[in-house]
């Protein structure tokens, strides 16, 4: 089992991953002033494509060669992409950088919750996955003021911290033990699990809505309500996200994850329909939406790993979360296109309602998992 020190140090790499997730809306928004709004959406969409590739590739490698291999490869890819983004001179270089970062990010996401779940007791599994997740989401507290401070002239410096954190994470992860559950199953053959398809649909719908909240139309929505500069007020709303992660991490072993995962998606959808018409409650409701987006991750990260068997866990997780991230690639583009046809307010509600699909699927197909050993759930 992992010690508290190992959980804390493992979280360094996870915080690096989420640094790169949270800096994307600022990079996209700042870069749009140079390359245009439509072209800038390709930055986020390209990173989402990297998520798809990273989940499948790193998930398979971690299933075949061990969880530790996957933990190391994700850090290498993120550092390479960050270096290229830092020195990027044009859109092509920037897109390649975000592709590499996306592959590394999803490589991390597909392995860490599985590894931590396998190396934790049934009673502390949710808490430990929650704490590693929390370390990542708390990076939004750091990214937002730095991104606003750097502004349009120095936004490429947002890539720099990844280079330093990756080195620290690599040095520590070399010393981590291999997953005992994986070692016990390493020579078993991979067997397909239908729940991989179900959780792929769950993540696709959830990410469709979630990443639409990080796209350019959201900044326009904020400005249309008189809150300028929109970057600043987006930062205020975004603080709901890490708060949601903190609360969910504390409660992750106390509340049934099936129900919290479903409810977070359902309430997000309802609030996004209301949000554009909320008047003086615009900022509080925006904050609540981000809170729910953050709240869902500790529960859903743990819950996805729990619903998959040991041998296919990282591969299945990588497929579900990786292909699911294509929803995050499609969502922002659909949002931009919809606002030209049905208006900004109604398009916000439409992309929000997609999350209801996730809520329904979790309730229909998800298992009860809290405090049950992983090998007793799916083997």
TrEMBL record:
InterPro entries (alphabetical): MFS (IPR011701), MFS_dom (IPR020846), MFS_trans_sf (IPR036259)
Superkingdom of the organism of origin: Archaea
Membrane topology: Multi-pass membrane protein
Compartmental location: Membrane
An example molecular function term from Gene Ontology annotations: carboxylic acid transmembrane transporter activity
Gene3D superfamilies: MFS general substrate transporter like domains (1.20.1250.20)
GO annotation, cellular component aspect: plasma membrane
Pfam families: MFS_1
Transmembrane segments: 7-26, 38-57, 69-89, 95-116, 128-148, 154-174, 195-213, 233-251, 263-292, 342-366
Major localization class: membrane
Residues annotated as domain Major facilitator superfamily (MFS) profile: 1-370
Keywords of the record: Membrane, Transmembrane, Transmembrane helix
PANTHER family: CARBOXYLIC ACID TRANSPORTER PROTEIN HOMOLOG (PTHR23508)
Protein name: MFS transporter
Organism from which the protein derives: Stygiolobus azoricus
């Amino acid at each position: 089992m992992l010690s508290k020190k190992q959980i804390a140090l493992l979280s360094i790499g996870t915080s690096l991953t989420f640094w790169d997730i949270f800096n994307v809306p600022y990079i996209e928004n700042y870069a749009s002033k140079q390359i245009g709004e439509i072209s800038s959406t390709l930055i986020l969409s390209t990173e989402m494509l990297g998520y798809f590739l990273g989940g499948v590739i790193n998930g398979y490698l971690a299933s075949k060669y061990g969880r530790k291999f996957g933990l190391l490869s994700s850090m290498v890819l993120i550092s390479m992409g960050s270096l290229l983004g830092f020195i990027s001179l044009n859109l092509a270089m920037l897109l390649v950088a975000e592709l590499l970062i996306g592959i590394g990010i999803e490589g991390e996401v597909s392995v860490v919750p599985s590894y931590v779940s396998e190396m934790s007791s049934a009673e502390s599994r949710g808490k430990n996955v929650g704490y590693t997740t929390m370390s990542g989401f708390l990076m939004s507290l750091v990214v937002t003021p730095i991104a606003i401070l750097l502004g349009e002239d120095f936004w490429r410096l947002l890539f720099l911290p990844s280079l330093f954190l990756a080195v620290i994470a690599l040095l520590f992860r070399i010393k981590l033990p291999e997953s005992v559950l994986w070692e016990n199953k390493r020579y078993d053959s991979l067997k397909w699990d239908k729940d991989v398809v179900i959780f792929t649909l769950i993540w696709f719908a959830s990410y469709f809505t979630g990443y639409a909240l990080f796209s350019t139309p959201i900044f326009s929505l904020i400005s249309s309500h008189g809150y300028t500069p929109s970057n600043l007020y987006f930062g205020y709303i975004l603080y709901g996200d890490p708060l949601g992660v903190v609360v969910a991490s504390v409660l992750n072993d106390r509340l049934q994850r099936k129900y919290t995962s479903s409810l977070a998606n359902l309430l997000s959808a309802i609030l996004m329909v209301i949000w554009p018409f909320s008047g003086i409650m615009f900022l509080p409701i925006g904050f609540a939406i981000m809170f729910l987006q953050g709240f869902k991750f500790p529960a859903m990260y743990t819950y996805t790993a729990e619903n998959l068997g040991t041998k296919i866990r990282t591969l299945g997780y990588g497929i579900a979360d990786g292909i699911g991230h294509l929803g995050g690639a499609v969502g922002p583009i659909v949002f931009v296109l919809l606002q030209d046809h049905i208006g900004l307010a109604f398009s916000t509600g439409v992309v929000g309602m997609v999350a209801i699909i996730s809520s329904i699927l979790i309730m229909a197909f998800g298992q009860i998992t809290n405090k049950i050993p992983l090998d007793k759930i799916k083997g």
